[in-house]
Amino acid sequence: MTKRALVTGAGGFIGHHFVKFLLAKGYWVRGVDIKKPEFEDSPANEFTLLDLRTLETCVKASKGVDEVYNLAADMGGIGFITAYHAEIARNNILINSHMLEASRINKVLRYFYSSSACIYPQRLQNQSEVTPLKEEDAYPADPEEGYGWEKLFAEKLCQYYYEDYDLETRVARFHNVYGTLGTFDGGREKVPAALCRKIALAPDGSEIEIWGDGEQTRSFTYIDDCVEGVYRIMQSDCHQPLNLGTERLITINELVDMVARIAGKTLSKRHDTSKPQGVRGRNSDNTLLRNTLNWEPLISLEEGMTHTYKWIEGELRKTNRIPMLSESTR
Ligand SMILES: NC(=O)c1ccc[n+]([C@@H]2O[C@H](COP(=O)([O-])OP(=O)(O)OC[C@H]3O[C@@H](n4cnc5c(N)ncnc54)[C@H](O)[C@@H]3O)[C@@H](O)[C@H]2O)c1
């Protein structure tokens, strides 16, 4: 029998990709969001515009589905999540608590929650050469203000709904997901997309601005690995949160050099240390993920960033934002 799924946040980056992934697996899919996807129409069987901050809308969204993939969140890059603690924490706890309760009311069989590496304690992330984070490192808690605290509490809610109501919850902690069809402008974009945009717009030989001294480190996950991982985690029997990331640590300066190479440009960097840069270093320890799924993200950063850069460059060309001069550098 065809499985029926709800994807919340289906107008967003990961949600939109996930709708396509489930359709390819033969699912019937309902997508819900407060906005439509930015770059192409949603192929979902049903796409409904709903604000999921109320129980009523969450009940409506999750009616008649077997599985819920809750990917809706008020979020953005480091500048955005640093600036709006109250608004982000309030909006997201409303979405996440109501989505769980609605899924219980509608007797949903499985529920997926998208948590984040931002739940990890800041004290473990104050050096560039950071020790990769294991799931158990989450406690004693000291997550990122606002966004991170809310994510950690929503993870706990998933645990309580499993323990008290037998709702089959699954949780992944995403580590910096990037790829095509992700927002790259306007303030909510993340580092990889922002760098691709800046580099695509910069004439060869010019200078680009980098937030911080560029020696902060991260690991990144390509979108195709992310959707595959979400699906595998949902199929597993694991009720505890799992890291979903890669273990390749890279500085932001190195990432800039990689994208400049992909673009075929020589650029210099101007570091603005007044801008937020988040924790100093963060990496994923995939031991538990590997042991649980016998799988982990496989796509190299070079391959993922090449797809992402080419797509963003193409979008900027479509809207005539790339100066004609840089045509020769293609
Ligand atoms: N992209 C990453 O690197 C990353 C990292 C860690 C965690 N996550 C988590 O993964 C999930 C998906 O992230 P994304 O990168 O696709 O973000 P995104 O911003 O592209 O998508 C989130 C979607 O949720 C929607 N939304 C916000 N408020 C809503 C509301 N009240 N009602 C209905 N929809 C609402 C937004 O309109 C947006 O389309 C989120 O839970 C996010 O916190 C993402």
Q: Total number of β-strand segments?
A: 13
List the ions, cofactors and other small molecules found in this model: nicotinamide-adenine-dinucleotide
CATH class of the largest domain: Alpha Beta
> Spatial order of the strands in the main sheet?
3-2-1-4-5-6-11
Number of helices, counting only DSSP H or I runs of 4 residues or more:
10
| Overall geometry | globular
Which helices and strands occur, and which strands form pairs?
Layout lengths: L3 E5 L4 H12 L3 E6 L12 E4 L5 H7 L5 E4 L7 H6 L1 H21 L4 E7 L30 H19 L2 E7 L2 E2 L12 H11 L5 E5 L5 E2 L2 E2 H13 L6 E3 L5 E2 H12 L4 E5 L14 H7 L7 H18 L12
Parallel strand pairs: 1-2, 1-4, 2-3, 4-5, 5-6, 6-11, 7-10, 8-13
Antiparallel strand pairs: 9-12
The structure holds nicotinamide-adenine-dinucleotide.
Please outline what is shown here.
This protein is 38% helix and 16% strand. By secondary structure, it is an alpha/beta fold. The strands form 4 sheets. Strands 3-2-1-4-5-6-11 form a 7-stranded parallel sheet, with helices on both faces.
Written overview of the protein:
The structure is a single chain. This protein has helices spanning 13-24, 55-61, 78-83, 85-105, 147-165, 191-201, 223-235, 252-263, 287-293, 301-318, and strands at residues 4-8, 28-33, 46-49, 67-70, 110-116, 168-174, 177-178, 207-211, 217-218, 221-222, 242-244, 250-251, 268-272. β5 (110-116), α5 and β6 form a beta-alpha-beta unit. The protein is globular, with a radius of gyration of 20 Å. With 330 residues, the chain is of the alpha/beta class. Residues 325-330 have low confidence and may be disordered. The longest helix is centred in the N-terminal third of the chain and has 21 residues, at 85-105. It folds into two domains: 4-178 and 222-244, NAD(P)-binding Rossmann-like Domain (Rossmann fold, 3-Layer(aba) Sandwich); 191-218 and 248-284 and 300-322, UDP-galactose 4-epimerase, domain 1, CATH 3.90.25. The relative contact order is 0.14. The chain is 38% helix and 16% strand. Strands 3-2-1-4-5-6-11 form a seven-stranded parallel beta sheet, sandwiched between helices. A two-stranded parallel ribbon has the order 7-10. It has a two-stranded parallel ribbon with strand order 8-13. Bound molecules: nicotinamide-adenine-dinucleotide. Nicotinamide-adenine-dinucleotide is lined by residues 9, 11-15, 33-35, 51-53, 71-75, 91, 95, 114, 116, 174, 176-177, 190.
